[in-house]
């Protein structure tokens, strides 16, 4: 059970890894993405991205600003204007 | 014939020029590596954004109500040429090539009876175009060191462009910059940025198989995405330019160093020949003086 997660900013590809779950701050509310999530495209608001690694109970948070998230069969891609 | 002293001074001056060009080459090489990495690091974002815009654009039909950035103003009269160059010279034909492409483009448009406006980013591009189209330049930006440009800067330029577009200042915007192919090859490129040229991507076909949920809806996402796309295209062009500039500079300085080396060698030969001639003359004088006694 793993989700392929990528976090990309205009400056560089920040993350590309296998994780358990990611909670994304969407404009219409936060949503968690697990493996096998239905295709989705959403804009994001400024907020914290929560990354749950496999087996971890406390998430790693990354602050992101402006952009959007896309879920497709390959996994989750977050395109953020600013991150970190 | 120059005197021995003058030759010596000349050799010294060429030597110090060579030292400078050599140092500039080293600096360009170091900066090039960083600029190249930066240009490559920026590619994933631009590619993904392009794919997303393509797949979104294929889903909604272009109509009167579509965002203007996508559909255009419906006219093709006023063209804006956005010319990205560097602020500094000494980079071979880098700035000249971009300016030449832009100039040719402008002349073609003018010949077709279109109105041409010019928006320069970088002092060198402005200098060249100001000679030929002094009345067409509507705005100039001096970005300073291209390598240090952040996305926020590109965003600022894009916002300014979009504001001008929405105020009806132009119908079509084309961006001129130099694509970095390799250290030896940089290609001046023209790219239409407003209205957004819809990339004919195969990715659209891949994701359209499944029903995608949009939050909020397609149109709002697109409205949010299009200005961002302009900023990204600008940012990418700047990054490519930064790498191209350093590559071009490195080649130019390498040539300059080599030319200086050749010149020093030639001057040294002349210097030695003259010195020997002077010694020979002196010897002849002494010997004939001694014989006369």
From TrEMBL, chain A:
Where it sits in the cell: the answer is:
Cell membrane; Endomembrane system
GO CC annotation: endomembrane system; plasma membrane; proton-transporting ATP synthase complex
Molecular function in Gene Ontology: ATP binding; proton-transporting ATP synthase activity, rotational mechanism
Question: Keyword ATP-binding on this protein?
Answer: no
Keywords carried by this UniProt record: ATP synthesis, Cell membrane, CF(1), Hydrogen ion transport, Ion transport, Membrane, Transport
Lineage of the source organism? Answer: Bacteria, Pseudomonadati, Pseudomonadota, Alphaproteobacteria, Sphingomonadales
Q: What family name appears in the similarity comment?
A: Belongs to the ATPase epsilon chain family.
Domain ATP synthase F1 complex delta/epsilon subunit N-terminal: from-to ranges: 3-83
What name has this protein been given in UniProt?
ATP synthase epsilon chain
Q: Which organism is it from?
A: Sphingomonas kyeonggiensis
Q: Which NCBIfam families match?
A: ATP_synt_epsi, PRK13449.1
UniProtKB/TrEMBL annotation, chain B:
State the annotated membrane topology for this chain: Peripheral membrane protein
Kindly list the places in or outside the cell where this protein is found, as annotated in its UniProt entry.
Answer: Cell membrane; Membrane; Thylakoid
- May I have one GO cellular component term? thylakoid
The record's section on InterPro entries has: ATP_synth_F1_ATPase_gsu (IPR035968), ATP_synth_F1_gsu (IPR000131), ATP_synth_F1_gsu_CS (IPR023632)
CDD domains in alphabetical order = F1-ATPase_gamma (cd12151)
Print the keywords alphabetically.
ATP synthesis, Cell inner membrane, Cell membrane, CF(1), Hydrogen ion transport, Ion transport, Membrane, Transport
Domain of life, source organism: Bacteria
Q: Which GO terms describe its molecular function?
A: ATP binding; proton-transporting ATP synthase activity, rotational mechanism
One of its GO biological process terms is: proton motive force-driven plasma membrane ATP synthesis
Q: Which family, according to UniProt?
A: Belongs to the ATPase gamma chain family.
* NCBIfam families in alphabetical order: ATPsyn_F1gamma, PRK05621.1-4
Q: Which HAMAP family match?
A: ATP_synth_gamma_bact
Q: State whether it acts alone or in a complex, and with which partners, per the record.
A: F-type ATPases have 2 components, CF(1) - the catalytic core - and CF(0) - the membrane proton channel. CF(1) has five subunits: alpha(3), beta(3), gamma(1), delta(1), epsilon(1). CF(0) has three main subunits: a, b and c.
Job description of the protein: Produces ATP from ADP in the presence of a proton gradient across the membrane. The gamma chain is believed to be important in regulating ATPase activity and the flow of protons through the CF(0) complex.
What name does the UniProt record give this protein? ATP synthase gamma chain
- Whichever gene encodes this chain, its name is atpG
């Amino acid at each position: 059970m793993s989700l392929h997660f990528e976090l990309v900013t205009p400056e560089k590809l920040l993350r590309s890894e296998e994780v358990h779950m990611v909670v994304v701050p969407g404009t219409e509310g936060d949503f968690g993405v697990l493996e096998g999530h239905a295709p989705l495209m959403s804009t994001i608001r400024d907020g914290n991205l929560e990354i749950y690694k496999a087996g971890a109970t406390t998430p790693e948070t990354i602050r992101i600003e402006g952009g959007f998230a896309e879920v497709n069969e390959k996994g989750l891609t977050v395109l953020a204007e600013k991150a970190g | 014939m120059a005197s021995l002293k003058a030759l010596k001074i000349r050799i010294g001056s060429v030597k110090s020029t060579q030292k400078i060009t050599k140092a500039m080459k080293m600096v360009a090489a170091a900066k090039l590596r960083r600029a190249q990495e930066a240009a490559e690091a920026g590619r994933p974002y631009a590619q993904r954004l392009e794919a997303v815009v393509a797949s979104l654009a294929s889903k909604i039909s272009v109509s009167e109500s579509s965002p203007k950035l996508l559909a255009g103003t419906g006219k093709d009269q006023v063209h804006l040429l956005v010319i990205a160059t560097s602020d500094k010279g000494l980079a071979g034909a880098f700035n000249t090539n971009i300016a030449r492409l832009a100039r040719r483009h402008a002349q073609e448009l003018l010949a077709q009876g279109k109105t041409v406006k010019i928006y320069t980013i970088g002092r060198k591009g402005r200098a060249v175009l100001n000679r030929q189209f002094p009345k067409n330049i509507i705005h100039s930006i001096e970005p300073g060191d291209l390598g240090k440009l952040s996305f926020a800067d590109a965003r600022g330029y894009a916002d300014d462009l979009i504001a001008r577009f929405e105020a009806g200042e132009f119908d079509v915007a084309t961006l001129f910059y130099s694509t970095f192919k390799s250290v030896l090859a940089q290609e001046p490129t023209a790219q239409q940025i407003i209205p957004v040229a819809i990339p004919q991507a195969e990715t659209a076909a891949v994701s359209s198989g499944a029903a995608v949920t949009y939050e909020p809806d397609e149109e709002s996402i697109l409205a949010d995405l299009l200005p961002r796309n302009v900023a990204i295209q600008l940012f990418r062009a700047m990054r490519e330019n930064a790498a191209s500039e350093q590559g071009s500079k490195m080649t130019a300085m390498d040539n300059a160093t080599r030319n200086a080396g050749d010149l020093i060698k030639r001057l040294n030969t002349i210097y030695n020949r003259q010195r020997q001639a002077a010694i020979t003359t002196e010897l002849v004088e002494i010997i004939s003086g001694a014989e006369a006694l």
